[in-house]
Amino acid sequence: MTSNSSLPTIWSAQNIRTALQTFFVAIFFAALLSISPARAQIGPDKRELNVVATLVAESQQVQAGQSVTLAFVMTPKPTWHGYWENPGDAGIGMSFDWNLPDGVTAGKAQYPVPDTLLISGIMNYIYKGDYAVLVNLVVSERVKPGPLPISVKSEWLACTDEVCVPERDELSINLQVVGPDAAVSLNNAFNDYREALPRQLGSAATFMVKDDLFRLSIPFPENIDVESPYFFIKEDGIVDYAAPQKVNRDGDRLIIETAARGDELQNISGVLKIGPKMGLSLKASAGDVEMSGVPIGGGSSGNFIGGGDQSSASLLFIALGGAIVGGLLLNLMPCVFPILSLKAISLAKAGGEEGIVRRDALAYTAGVVVVATALGALLLALRASGAAVGWAFQLQDPRIIFVLLALVTAIGLNLAGLFELPNINIGNKLADKDGPAGSFWTGALAAFVATPCTGPFMAAALGATIVLPPIAALIIFAGLGVGLALPFLLIAFVPAIRDRLPKPGAWLDSFRKAMAIPMFLTSIGLIWLLGRQIGEDGLALSLIFLLLVALILWWFGGGQIKGLSRGMVTTGALIAAVMGGIMFLPDEEAMETQRAATASAATLPSEPFSEARLSELRAANQPVFAYFTADWCITCKANEAAAVQRQETADAFAAANVAVLMGDWTRPDPAISKFLEKHGRAGVPLYLYYAPGEEPVILPQILTVGTLTDLVT
């Protein structure tokens, strides 16, 4: 539970994010609603609807001067849901376009008590399972006895946790106006429909919006128990829907506090949920509200996707365990192994001496955890500001790749003996020198270059950072760092392992030079990645500046042999060379051309991913394989080489008429970022298979040809 003092700080940034999310989601749904009925899978056959609406009347007979209640009985298919009148951050409530005879008027729709559903930080107010929306029709006294045809065009949004479809139907019912003495029979099902509606709160409530906080004081008898209270506000723009709600009890009042979005009104209305399918409908006027009393249970911000009623604490512990195990397995990934060679040299120099090994292991762990947490904090801050980014976002920028390439090349040349680093007390030049500073910067570098790799357990752990509070998310990022550093902690603090370390000797110099090889292999990988992003011409120019970096270091090393001091000149020249390489990188248009050319030459042809294209293919009942990748993602490239871009896969998909959509996340793409978040992922890879008329299947992160071909056989 967030304390009062921290709410304004935490949620002021989130207000920005939520507002932007709502804006783009609203545009997306508006675009969907503009699609023709055929494309939206709407037709006269109710079997095509995912949430079927049926119009029924409480009585087929109605007397002139009286009213009759109609019910829109909504029946969602399994896994589908509909929306409350205020859908929350996303979604669309029902709309009604009535065609009524003269003298008949329709009242306002009455909705049952909704539930919450939190997906990727977006709060939805929804109904899962059958529900009924009630509308009262008032028949004027001047209406003559006889048939009373009623028809209405209604639209609504049907969603699963993965996809949304706008739906519509034209419903009609024939009533009969009867005389005052005629018998009127009632449909008993309406007793249950009304039971699900919120009761009217007899007393007035008070609310206040101040300093990014929303507070609501509700009269509620002290002797009546309340279960998991939650306030659903009808007016949009007042509260941050996804923010947790803190609930206190002060005598005969319930006081609810949550984050405000910014808009202020003099009057609001809403529903206070006090138990399963139980709620109170209330209106509140602006006034002063103090947060007093004793906290009570409830105040959840909704169900996590795939989590049901799982608490945030349980989700945190599960995700933290996944992050630690995932970080541990990262040590086996090719993107991290070359950097580990630096730590191996440090351990070899220590020769198993307990104090040195433990000191360096702790420093290395600190470097890993600090950088992993810092990258996570920057990721959360960018998301809070409205940017759609994910894990390894820094490698979507070719400028950072070029700087990393220059750094890794310099480290490789240093290990090969081309030059030695001077004893300058600035982290001992990142990695090479002895001592805790060198170990710290080695860990920092390992964490930075580990981000392109996503191994087992990591996807779910990093995906949880999307929905957890910021502090909990940072704990998961730190846990990833602990897992990455765990092997060296075990070496340092388990004597049986540490005692097996070899003693220093003449072999150490040869070992150090051998460790330059994985560094140069990393440089080759970064050169390939840079070429994929900026094209051949841009890469050639970048390599000229990289060669300039190598020549400067060679000149510096030659001066060291002669006993000359060239440190200041070398530093300035290196800065100029790196800045030149950054400045002459090609523009975005050239990079888009390069990526298009690369995609066209693939063994398994694909179209660029878009949700609109996915919906179009799904509407045509065509199977779809959608995969999300990035050139800097080692796991993605390994899967493509081993399974996706294989002739066997291409032949099987072609035979089954499978459409292939590729989401390229090499460069920032907000649409792909949001789609990944909707599926609980903070980064790539993600593989989805959509069979006609079925829910999507999320495939494992490690693919084989058999995994893919079995989908269509």
TrEMBL record:
<keyword id="KW-0201">Cytochrome c-type biogenesis</keyword>
<feature type="transmembrane region" description="Helical">
    <location>
        <begin position="400"/>
        <end position="419"/>
    </location>
</feature>
<dbReference type="InterPro" id="IPR035671">
    <property type="entry name" value="DsbD_gamma"/>
</dbReference>
<keyword id="KW-0472">Membrane</keyword>
<keyword id="KW-1003">Cell membrane</keyword>
<feature type="transmembrane region" description="Helical">
    <location>
        <begin position="514"/>
        <end position="532"/>
    </location>
</feature>
<feature type="transmembrane region" description="Helical">
    <location>
        <begin position="440"/>
        <end position="465"/>
    </location>
</feature>
<feature type="transmembrane region" description="Helical">
    <location>
        <begin position="568"/>
        <end position="585"/>
    </location>
</feature>
<dbReference type="Pfam" id="PF13899">
    <property type="entry name" value="Thioredoxin_7"/>
</dbReference>
<dbReference type="InterPro" id="IPR003834">
    <property type="entry name" value="Cyt_c_assmbl_TM_dom"/>
</dbReference>
<feature type="transmembrane region" description="Helical">
    <location>
        <begin position="361"/>
        <end position="380"/>
    </location>
</feature>
<dbReference type="Pfam" id="PF02683">
    <property type="entry name" value="DsbD_TM"/>
</dbReference>
<feature type="domain" description="Thioredoxin">
    <location>
        <begin position="593"/>
        <end position="713"/>
    </location>
</feature>
<feature type="transmembrane region" description="Helical">
    <location>
        <begin position="471"/>
        <end position="494"/>
    </location>
</feature>
<feature type="transmembrane region" description="Helical">
    <location>
        <begin position="315"/>
        <end position="340"/>
    </location>
</feature>
<protein>
    <submittedName>
        <fullName>Thioredoxin family protein</fullName>
    </submittedName>
</protein>
<keyword id="KW-0812">Transmembrane</keyword>
<dbReference type="InterPro" id="IPR013766">
    <property type="entry name" value="Thioredoxin_domain"/>
</dbReference>
<dbReference type="InterPro" id="IPR028250">
    <property type="entry name" value="DsbDN"/>
</dbReference>
<dbReference type="Pfam" id="PF11412">
    <property type="entry name" value="DsbD_N"/>
</dbReference>
<dbReference type="InterPro" id="IPR036249">
    <property type="entry name" value="Thioredoxin-like_sf"/>
</dbReference>
<feature type="transmembrane region" description="Helical">
    <location>
        <begin position="538"/>
        <end position="556"/>
    </location>
</feature>
<keyword id="KW-1133">Transmembrane helix</keyword>
